[in-house]
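Morning!

This is the sequence you dropped in the shared folder:
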Amino acid sequence: MSRGIPLALLALTLGAYAIGTTEFVIVGLIPTIAADLGVSLPSAGLLVSLYALGVAVGAPVLTALTGRVPRKTLLVALMVLFTLGNVIAWMAPGYGSLIVARVLTGLAHGVFFSIGSIIATSVVPKEKAASAIAIMFTGLTVALVTGVPLGTFIGQHLGWRATFLAVAALGVIALIGSLLFVPRNLQRSEPATFGQQLSVLAQPRLLLVYAITALGYGGTFLSFTYLASILQDVTGFSANAVSGVLLVYGVSVAIGNLWGGRLADRRGPIPALKLIFGLLAAVLFVLTFTAYNTWLVLLTVLALGAVAFGNVPGLQVYVVKQAQRFAPQAADVASGLNIAAFNVGIALGASLGGLVVDHFGLMHTPWLGALVVMGALGLTVLSGRLDRRDGVADRAEGIAVGAH
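The structure's back. Tokens below.
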């Protein structure tokens, strides 16, 4: 990567942006979809949960079932499925067909990030593994913020179906990029037997990593799901101003994601994760108090963006490292299960946040989110101690993530 970012990695990043946009843009379109299709807001909100379910199921199950498929062939097929799902959403005559479209795109999402992490690390030097994952996930994290306001803008002015058509166009561009730039001769591990795949779930040390991932993202989304509401209802920003704040937040997210990758490369995943989770919990706790002041909340939101998703590279590298120790024939499956854990955390965090808002109020979400992130920090410390007990050096340079 010293001579520039490989084009294959840029193609993966664009795919990640398209997939991230279709996942999160639904949040801004829920009121519009509910009104247009004549369904309740909770029913429209179910489209978020069903997508996450598609991701959670698709990541481990389809990653396991497609172990013998060449990586490039699988990547191209996933982008075709993703584009098809968004075209179905664009043409959806009613609620039922929109559900089908969301599940299809969710299935593609899960496997994309599972094998995408493996492909990203195989096109760079071994010591740049975490940074490569960070670059790819920058597409997802930027989509998290820019995709929602831009997609909502399109949906409000041209109809929600037009948003899905625009995302399908992004999918076509990512598909062409994958066809042109991703190498055909990517090495892959021998396909795991079904027993070996199940063995991933029988490994306490891998389950510990999945718990860290789920808690880290559960805590983040417990509060992040309602960040726009906090900015508008508590701080007093206008709706247009909130969109502007979130766009700036997106730049902070991208920078923080890259920083997190370099930190994991330099220090190793456990020290990087301990620092990032500690900072994330602190920023969420501080948000409880700064939300009432315009300038202080802007600084807090920028800090939140810098740490909220910086743990992705470390988590992905660490789960593959642990899989190579405890389930060496199923590293792809282990990576897929971690993507499922991300989405389980997002779904549970958003749901718990809704309960907190209903029963206690909006401003209880930041500090409760901080408590959940502290749980992730505690489990990270525990996992590091277990590694030291086993005599495993925590150095990122020793992780052959891309050697498949």
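Headline: Residues 88 and 335 are 29 Å apart (CA to CA).

More detail when I'm at my desk.
O.
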